Amino acid sequence: MRLFNLKSLLAIGLLLTVSPAIFAQKKTVSNIWPAEKANAWYAQHKWINGANFSPSTAINQLEMWQAETFDPATIDRELGYAERIGFNAMRVFLHSVVWKEDPRGFKSRISKYLAIADKHHIQTIFVFFDDCWNPNARPGKQPDPKPGIHNSGWMQDPGRPLTTEADFAALKVYVDDILTTFKHDKRILLWDLYNEPGNGDKNKIASRLLPKVFAWAHAVNPDQPVSSGMWDWNLEALNKVQLKNSDVITYHCYDSPELHQRVVQLLKINNRPVICTEYMARPRNSTFENTMPMLKKENVGAINWGFVSGKTNTIYAWDTPMPDGAEPKVWFHDIFRKDGQPYKQEEVDLIKKLNDK
Questions:
Q1: Would you indicate the residue range of the signal peptide (predicted)?
Q2: pLDDT of 241-252, one tens digit each?
Q3: What is the pTM of this model?
Q4: pLDDT for 138-165, tens place per residue?
Q5: Are 150 and 317 in contact (CB under 8 A)?
Q6: Which helix (H) or strand (E) holds 91?
Q7: Residue range 6-16+33-354, CATH number
Q8: What share of the chain is helix, strand, coil (3-state, %, to 5)?
């Protein structure tokens, strides 16, 4: 959730000026895609666009995936809204705690989700790890939403400190199992290995985990590309790991379209496909109207945060809680109400137009 400024853009430029040397270095793993393979993969797809998706009935990743609260009816209905406006990709977060409690059941529910998404002509970007919001996820009943507070129940993964090699070994088994099970599944577009590594106070964990998860993924060598999105240009060491090891380049940007376009132009220097996996925060001048057409023109994938207003409370801003739970005058994220009515009809009309619907 990083906003860009001139200093940030200079940092990106410095990072990218050394990127040819980074890519010229001998790889520790041989399965990182050459740029030619990545571009050929990208050329096989229509312009990639969609949203980060959690059904409106789930406060977090655990409530989405646990057997007791997995809600295929809502998933089906809400992915129908996505199909209606031409979205062809959704970014969806997994969670290792759900896998640890019930590996077989978790994978079965992933398969059910993929079948529903495929019915609606939607491919999925699955996210493994995440350094955002609340630590120490626990299985079972999840907390109720706190009125007016953005993502009040969202869970980091892993949220606990990683202190021993056994901790990493357990996460490796999880990643290996999911990737091996679904490595040939054409319904999966991309594996996003780690969301916003280093967010909050997680820099020490991320600096150890991020290189490992890339190595695990490249060792499995799935048919789908792997990536981790750059989001904070001050985290230079993590950015270099992401840039060096991603098959396609992904990033987050919630800034104005002028700065956002400069970020795109700098990232495209690497001659690899570029996908924005988070954007669109209306009060911060990142909107569908001013950003999505630019991303299509640049042939950059466009995955906004938020889809149907629900238990995640992402109609509220990150840093502006509304404890009375009243609806904000301007929604921060999200496109639809639960009944399928759009928050702004003109936004939906634009998205449909860009998708030739």
A1: 1-23
A2: 999 999 999 999
A3: 0.94
A4: 999 999 999 999 999 999 999 888 888 8
A5: yes
A6: strand 89-93
A7: 3.20.20.80
A8: 45, 15, 45
